[in-house]
């Protein structure tokens, strides 16, 4: 993917990547904060906890469906303008939660917030990649995507604690303030990023879709779905596993989970370097490692110290794949990279939904250890897909005679 006047030095790109990281971090906190305050929201809205849980589902659907749609609609806009507009709209969507009181309105606001987050993540990747030379694209992606993992490891627990003092509306007010800070940082640190020029870069939605939904890209997205289905089959029900199999309870469970969260953040940061070296090989190694880690977790489940060590390895390996998955999708899409950049987030949310459902069936029918071994089996499918997709190559695109787009 060619760019215009993109700075290539590491130092010039760093402030932009930090701003993009922070934007994704704030959105990740808002996305998952509902989980920690679900009972409070349910009581406030006078609905059941399961009904309040639909707020999580609506956000995920917003990312999966709304993100790509908004990406198509904003494809020809300057990326900096899109990022600024999205942060403003995200703050407004969360303001609706703070000031509103209707359940239907909350569902709509969460769907909209998810859609604009999906757009932000895709555009952030395009922007980050445009700021660095090609050999550092994976590290740029890892910096941005780490905003999600850090928000899960640090932001969500802190937000949940804050809700105990401020109430759930107070916690979301804090998110709005942080969103304004992210908006200011984006205005100050993110340069203008016009629509790229080069072969095929000026294609409209139909032209982009031809490449973004090519079989080679869909194969990579399938791997993305399987990777996160494996992860969330076990992760969704890891607390019952730790309680009933490992024998840890109370605050000790939180320690295990925080350690896992930190490991995922380390993995997502470090995974960018492996993506730059050889993304396809990194995926094959990491899918194999996660399947082995899940099998080990099943075997040593009754030994707390070993479980803690396996959780660390599993977290690092699982999230180290995120930069490689994103980079492979964008690379294989060629001229459709602008649209394709939003698709891994959609695939991830499909994988999360599939994984949580599979884990639910497993634990209901076979007990607390079943989600872990089920996740390992899904992980083996991931190994096969990682091996098969390692042979995929980007499209060869001939030069066209269409004039290059000029910076506005």
From TrEMBL:
It comes from the Bacteria. CDD domains: MFS_NepI_like. The chain crosses the membrane at residues 20-43, 49-70, 82-105, 111-132, 144-163, 175-196, 217-239, 251-270, 369-388. Residues 16-394 form the Major facilitator superfamily (MFS) profile domain. The keyword Membrane applies. Its main location: membrane. It is a multi-pass membrane protein. It is found in: Cell membrane. GO terms for cellular component: plasma membrane. One of its GO terms (molecular function) is transmembrane transporter activity. SUPFAM superfamilies: MFS general substrate transporter. Keywords: Cell membrane, Membrane, Transmembrane, Transmembrane helix. Coiled coil: none annotated. This is DHA1 family inner membrane transport protein.
């Amino acid at each position: 993917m060619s760019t215009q006047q993109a700075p290539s030095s590491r130092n010039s790109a760093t402030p932009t990547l930090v701003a993009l990281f922070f934007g994704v971090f704030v959105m990740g906190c808002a996305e998952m904060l509902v989980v920690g305050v679900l009972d409070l929201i349910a009581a406030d809205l006078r609905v059941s906890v399961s009904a309040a849980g639909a707020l999580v589902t609506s956000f995920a659907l917003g990312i999966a469906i709304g993100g790509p749609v908004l990406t198509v609609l904003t494809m020809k806009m300057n990326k900096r303008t899109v990022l600024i507009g999205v942060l403003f709209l995200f703050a407004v969507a969360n303001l609706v939660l703070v000031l509103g009181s209707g359940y239907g309105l909350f569902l709509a606001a969460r769907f909209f917030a998810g859609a604009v987050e999906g757009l932000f993540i895709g555009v952030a990747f395009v922007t980050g990649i445009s700021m660095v030379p090609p050999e550092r694209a994976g590290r740029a992606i890892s910096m941005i995507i780490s905003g999600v993992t850090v928000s899960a490891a640090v932001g969500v627990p802190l937000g949940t604690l804050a809700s105990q003092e401020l109430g759930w509306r107070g916690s979301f007010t804090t998110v709005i303030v942080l969103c304004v800070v992210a908006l200011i940082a984006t205005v100050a640190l993110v340069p203008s990023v016009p629509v790229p020029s080069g072969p095929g870069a000026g294609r409209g939605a139909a032209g982009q879709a031809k490449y973004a939904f090519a079989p080679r890209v869909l194969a990579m997205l399938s791997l993305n779905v399987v990777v996160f289905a494996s992860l969330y089959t076990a992760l969704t029900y890891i607390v019952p596993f730790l309680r009933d199999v490992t024998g840890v309870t109370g605050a000790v469970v939180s320690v295990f989970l925080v350690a896992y969260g930190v490991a995922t953040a380390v993995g997502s940061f470090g995974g960018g370097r492996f993506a730059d070296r050889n993304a396809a090989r990194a995926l094959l190694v990491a899918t194999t490692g996660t399947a082995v880690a899940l099998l080990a977790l099943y075997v040593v489940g009754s030994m707390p110290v070993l479980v803690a060590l396996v959780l660390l390895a599993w977290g690092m390996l699982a999230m180290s794949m995120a930069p490689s998955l994103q980079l492979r999708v964008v690379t294989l899409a060629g001229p459709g990279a602008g649209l394709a950049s939003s698709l891994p987030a959609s695939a991830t949310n499909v994988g999360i939904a599939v994984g949580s459902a599979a884990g639910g069936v497993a634990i209901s029918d076979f007990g607390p250890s079943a989600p872990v071994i089920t996740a390992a089996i899904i992980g083996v499918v991931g190994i096969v897909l990682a091996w098969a997709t390692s042979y995929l190559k980007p499209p060869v695109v001939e030069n066209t005679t269409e004039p290059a787009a000029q910076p506005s």
